[in-house]
Design goal:
With 114 residues, the chain is mainly alpha-helical. The chain is built from five helices and no strands. It has helices at 3-13, 24-37, 49-60, 68-79, 88-100. It is globular.
């Protein structure tokens, strides 16, 4: 698996309205990114995507959303409802996304045309 492509894909998706995550890979990336933006430790590994999503919500729902990017990420994450198992590789992807997140905005910046 090429981890950075998954992270970049969801960073790009946040630039559009009404877009949802399309895979458990993107879901794991989003959870890792959100945990980092909220100043939380790397999320614990759970068996299913539903459990890990519920866990991140328990930790962030009472907190102020740190940025528009985070708000869009939460909306996309909530739109992903397909049940999935979290494998070791998916958990590694979550950790990668967590470790690569800097600040409250996406690393990917869309090109500007003049």
């Amino acid at each position: 698996m090429v981890y950075y492509i998954n992270k970049q894909a969801i960073e790009i998706k946040t630039q559009f309205q009404g877009i949802t995550l399309t895979s458990v890979n993107e879901c794991c990336c989003a959870i890792g990114i959100l945990a980092k933006m909220y100043g939380l430790p790397v999320p614990a590994k759970f068996d299913t995507q539903e459990e890990i999503k519920e866990n991140i919500h328990r930790q962030i729902d009472s907190k102020t959303v740190p940025s528009e990017y985070a708000s869009k990420m939460i909306n996309m994450l909530d739109g992903y409802i397909k049940p999935e198992t979290i494998t070791d590789e998916l958990y590694d992807l979550l950790q990668y996304a967590y470790n690569e997140q800097r600040g409250f905005e996406p690393a990917y910046k869309a090109p500007t045309y003049r």
